[in-house]
Specification:
Blueprint: H1 6-14, H2 20-35, E1 50-52, E2 55-63, E3 77-79, E4 86-87, E5 92-93, E6 103-109, E7 125-131, H3 132-138, E8 144-146, H4 147-152, E9 156-158, H5 160-174
Parallel strand pairs: 2-6
Antiparallel strand pairs: 1-2, 3-8, 4-5, 6-7, 7-9
Helix pairs in contact: 2-5
Protein name: Restriction endonuclease
Amino acid sequence: MTRLNKQEFLKWAYDDLLTNTTRGVLAEYIVAKALGIRDTTRLEWDMYDLDIDGVGVEVKSAAYVQTWEQTKLSNISFGIRPAKGWNARTNVYATDTKRSADVYVFCLLEGEARERIDPLEVAQWTFYVLPTIELDRQVPEQKTIGLGRLKALLPRECTYDELAAAIHDAAKINRGS
């Protein structure tokens, strides 16, 4: 049997960074880089996407332009459904339905012209950071949230360079300190 080439597989499977699933993983990576997380790799299906010093961070992504042919730009919407979180380290589900993370980071890949969009260029992203307590207080049962409604919750809108500070500030608010 021939051993397959990992780089060829990655190019075959993940070369198009605009696809929804790949863009979502890329958004998680961008946030991890902003937070200085370097010693861990992504853990699929965990109760939240990133852990920074005990702070759970949930990362959501959206874009106006998709991989498929579009007749109009996509409406921006993010999933915020409360769930019974699963701990990948212990293989145990939470007993109650809730939003497990302390902070939500909503990552919007800006741009309306496919040929000019580069998802690896962090300047093309806008980040909206919100303590989970605000979602729980204002939209407790809501499963998705559009961009307009999200902005009405007054998240901290920031650039990549401001992202780590915004996440740490939101975590303090969420924990009441």
